[in-house]
Amino acid sequence: MASSRFSIAVHTLALLAHDERDKPLKSEYIACLVKTNAVVIRRLLSDLASANLVVSQAGATGGTRLARAPAEISLTEVYRAVEGGEIFSLHRQKPDSHCDIGRSIQAVLSKIQDRLDTAIEENLGKISLAEVLSMIEIENKNCLNKYQGENLR
Amino acid sequence: MASSRFSIAVHTLALLAHDERDKPLKSEYIACLVKTNAVVIRRLLSDLASANLVVSQAGATGGTRLARAPAEISLTEVYRAVEGGEIFSLHRQKPDSHCDIGRSIQAVLSKIQDRLDTAIEENLGKISLAEVLSMIEIENKNCLNKYQGENLR
DNA sequence: GTTACTGTAACAGATTTTATTACAGATTAG
DNA sequence: CTAATCTGTAATAAAATCTGTTACAGTAAC
After folding, report:
1. Dihedral through CA B119, CA B121, CA B127, CA B129, nearest 10?
2. Are A132 and B104 within 8 A, CB to CB?
3. Coil, strand or helix: which one is A70?
4. What is the 3-state secondary structure (H, E, C) of B77-144?
């Protein structure tokens, strides 16, 4: 799945974690910062809500906020919630099953897919939303330093 | 990249490893077994040749054969040769950079991409083409057993 | 020189992602 | 209770990506 849903989900969650957390954000506002359509955000938030990562409220003054503290949200959960979870696709046409290889290659490839998926989830499991926030902060400081450094010349 | 190129590459290499290895296979023949077009196979083989995994020969009686023994070909090499190598995409539209999050989120996501990519390559590095062949054999035997078992009823 | 391949370009078709419009249902304020 | 303002979802359009196909130049054997 080469979609950008994971990226947009992490961005959205970071926004929810960054702003005052008791005040829910509106999809329109998030969409504006992420530069996409509000419906795209709502669909994503809907998936995140199903995974109990966020809580939405309908009606005027409604919006969405995190369901838990950022330190308690792992990127694995986000990945599972919004991404299909296949690193590569199998053959679109089923291979010729008269051949020894063709008969079993897809079963073998599926096993490899599973291994990779596990590896990815383990890896993402080590990263929490809180860590993403601090990575962002560090990145911002680096930017600032670079910029000042260049001004000194 | 949710393409099936990796699957088709592994299938193709398995075919090259399975048949007599001194006799090169023609793209048309491989395409028939993989159930795709010969040009698709040639494009793939062309990438695999650039990665020194196979050797092709033009002209009548030409074709393609493995460049090394199956035990010496790791799936990491195959993956790198044919697949773009991005588990998820970044935002298609760049996010609003007036916002603290938007300014740095993509840099952070890139780092996460890199980590995942490394994890995948490490994982695939543990699997050689030779192992794929034996996995296929095991799978075929399992199929056979199942089939015979069902016939006994 | 004829035949039988590979390698690539160029284009068409299919599939997948993303954006947009529209509207029903929920919630609050007045 | 009515108007205003959200979410959630369906339906559809547009854009991007992936596959398949045709065409043909270049290479090697016979």
Report:
1. 160
2. no
3. helix
4. HHHHHHCCCCCCCCCCCCCCCCCHHHHHHHHHHHHHHHHHHHHHHHHHHCCEHHHHHHHHHHHHHHHH
Distance between CA atoms of residues A29 and A5, nearest Å = 18
Distance CA(B39)–CA(A74), nearest Å, equals 43
Rounded to whole angstroms, the Cα distance separating B16 from B26 reads 10
Return the number of other C-beta atoms located less than 10 Å from residue B21's C-beta.
13
Q: Are B30 and B12 in contact (CB under 8 A)?
A: yes
Nearest to B112 by CA among A10, A117, A113, A72: A10
pLDDT in tens, chain B (153 residues): 589 999 999 999 999 999 766 789 999 999 999 999 999 999 999 999 999 999 999 999 999 999 999 999 999 999 999 997 789 999 999 999 999 999 999 999 999 999 999 999 999 999 999 999 999 999 998 877 765 555 544
- Asked if B45 and B67 count as a contact pair (C-beta separation under 8 A), the reply is no
Query: What residues does A56 pair with on adjacent strands?
Result: A64
Interface residue of B11, B92, B115 to substitute, partner A, most A CBs within 10 Å = B11
pTM of this structure = 0.92
Name the closest residue (CA) to the C1' of nucleotide D7: A58
- Residue A83 at interface with chain B, using a CB cutoff of 8 Å: yes
Q: Which residue has its C-alpha nearest to nucleotide C29's C1'?
A: A60
CB A71 within 8 A of CB A51: no
Listed as ranges, the nucleotides of chain C within 7 A of a protein C-beta are: 3-10, 15-22, 25-29
